[in-house]
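writing this on my phone so excuse typos. first protein, seq and then structure
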Amino acid sequence: MDTTQSAWDTFYRALLQAGHDAALHMEDDIILTQGFNEKVESVIASMPDTAIQFFSMRKADLTEGSRWDNSFLMAQCFYLPAGWSRRMSEYMLRQDRDDPKLLYKEPLDMVVRFYFKKVEKKKYWIHCPSLVDHLEGKSVIDPKRSSKRQSKTFSNPIPY
């Protein structure tokens, strides 16, 4: 829960809370697909030791579908296998000590990307169709960002 109005602090605390356990990290500006729990649990069960992204808005989602990737973008909903959240929190802490100004200038998804590439040295799985969608609207973090950052494959939203 964001209690400090800091995406960095909130993400770091979520990583710490997950600790060594596997975790599904989700942002608060998403819409879930109907049957979300069953769908996400099924995908994770099929590849529990793989980082999995459940939101994407790339053209390749329509032409290639689910696939391996190494350029993580958009942190709306993603799964980290056991141990990854703890190691990522330690990575963030080291980066903060080495150059605190650098870390906080990077968007969260770029830190996840750097972590996957530099620390884990592994690709991640993009699951299509997206199981969550990004709410349309101005970004609280950066109002200059487009409000049109929705998935090309998301369907069947849970009705409000």
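second protein below, same order as before
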Amino acid sequence: MPLYLVRWPTLVASLVQADDEEELLDLLDQEADPGGCTFEIYEGPLWIDFQIPFTIGSINPEGPPPADTSELTVEATPDFDGELNTEMVRVSAPSCDFAADMLSEVLRGAFPGLALYLEELDLDPELDPELDPEPDTTNAAHEGLSAALREDLAPMVRYLRAQSELATRDDFEANLMKDMGVTTMLPSMRRGILHALKETPALDAD
């Protein structure tokens, strides 16, 4: 089952596993309109950590190592809001070379403008505003960053155009997409139409 790198029209990217592109579109519809997304198969490195918001301690930290779990303590972290559900799981990437390679690969695939800008910073560190350069260099760095991010907003422009074009249409598919809140005909929608047509009794020839 392939893993897809999905770029939403905003500055958000996702890694989603699906059998094929049709299933991917149906899955993305659970979150938002997949009509504004671009995607490609991701075959790069993958390392994601899942952590629950609790810390581990010992009832006798100065003594010997715990011999049983009853000698351990578990306390919520300060940022835990008390809600016990799956959303309390924290998702992050570890600080290791393999995870850094993953983030670089995702960045290049989803945000090529920003990735190129960061490469330019590596070639010319004086452009980095965090190094406290001269004011004009700082402005140039911020302008370069803004330009890179605007370049990565091309999917947003395409999505807004698709919304505008859909609003001018009044055909069956367009009205269905408007009702479903999407800008593309999803595979599940087409399957639903075909199923409805099969279930509809044929009109009497008389």
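The mean pLDDT is 88. thats all i got for now
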